[in-house]
């Protein structure tokens, strides 16, 4: 029994040192938190956008020092917020939506020209905007007045 517990303990310690495991654990905790929030609020409709946002965030995650992560987290939050707001606000008007999406894509590509880490954030923001379009399409569109209500929640 002692040999098996030592072997298990060694395997768990070795697993914990792997970067992929720590990354996967953070993503698992984020998914669990989103699921718990949706379940607690009894609002399953928010689960899909939350999950898609977590996926987009996980795709744009980079390894860095804590100061670098903080700076990139702020840039990520700004880019993701701008992408989601642009999609929500302009979705009811197709021509403005196409123009806004084109300008946002250009700006995000230029952000990606700064460096690889910013390119991953930009691609995550573009993926998030696609996910939001899918989510709005499934909810049969959102009126502009409702988008302000979504922000105040």
TrEMBL record:
UniProt keywords, alphabetically: Membrane, Transmembrane, Transmembrane helix
Q: Which domain of life is it from?
A: Bacteria
Q: Which residue spans traverse the membrane?
A: 44-60, 72-91, 97-114, 121-138
Which Pfam family, an example, fits this chain? FUSC-like
**Residues in coiled coil:** none
Q: Does the keyword Zinc apply?
A: no
Tell me which residues make up the Integral membrane protein YccS N-terminal domain: 73-140
Instruction: Indicate yes or no for the key word Ion transport.
Output: no
Q: State what protein this is by name.
A: FUSC-like inner membrane protein yccS
What species is this protein from?
A: Vreelandella aquamarina
């Amino acid at each position: 029994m002692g040999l098996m517990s030592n072997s298990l303990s060694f395997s768990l310690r070795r697993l914990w040192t792997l970067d992929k495991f720590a990354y996967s654990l953070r993503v698992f905790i984020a998914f669990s938190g989103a699921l718990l929030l949706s379940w607690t609020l009894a609002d399953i409709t928010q689960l899909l956008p939350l999950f898609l946002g977590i996926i987009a965030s996980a795709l744009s995650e980079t390894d860095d020092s804590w100061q670098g992560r903080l700076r990139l987290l702020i840039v990520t939050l700004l880019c993701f917020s701008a992408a989601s707001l642009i999609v929500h606000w302009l979705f009811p008007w197709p021509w403005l939506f196409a123009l806004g999406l084109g300008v946002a894509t250009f700006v995000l590509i230029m952000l990606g020209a700064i460096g690889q880490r910013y390119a991953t954030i930009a691609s995550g923001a573009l993926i998030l905007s696609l996910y939001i379009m899918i989510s709005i399409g499934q909810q049969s569109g959102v009126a502009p007045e409702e988008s302000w209500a979504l922000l105040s929640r």
